[in-house]
Write a structure and sequence with these properties.
The chain is mainly beta. Helices cover 3% and strands 46% of the residues. The protein has 1 helix and 12 strands; from the N terminus they run E-E-E-E-E-E-E-E-E-E-E-E-H. Strands 1, 3, 4, 7, 8, 9, 10 and 11 form an 8-stranded antiparallel beta sheet that branches. Strands 2-5 form a two-stranded antiparallel ribbon. The protein is globular, with a radius of gyration of 13 Å. It starts with 8 loop residues before the first strand and ends with a helix.
Length: 128
Amino acid sequence: MQQVFNRGEINPYGKYFTGTTYLNMLVQKDEMWNSSIGNVTFEKGARTNWHKHSGGQILLVTAGEGRYQEKGKEIRILKAGDVVKIPKDVIHWHGASPDCDFAHISIETNIPNNQTTWLEPVSNNEYK
């Protein structure tokens, strides 16, 4: 899968994911750049746990095919060029399709107070 940004290293938050993912932090939150922007790459079938962000999140899909789901709603298929705006405190997950790698830019919004609450893994039944 070709993508604009380097996939980075093995994701240090891997305990909150199923499968193999990579993280390349493009912008680290600091006093000058009150922002956190990362390129996240998912191998086929990899996905986040269910989680929520107290300040919301924006995903910019850059490559491959992915999945996004909010708790209680249908799975949304994601392709390069899609934008997902996730409101504050909405429980959701995102990741690669079963047959294709996937990459997105993750933008934390409403920081510095945006906190991620990680929940249970997405089951195979929920994923498929």
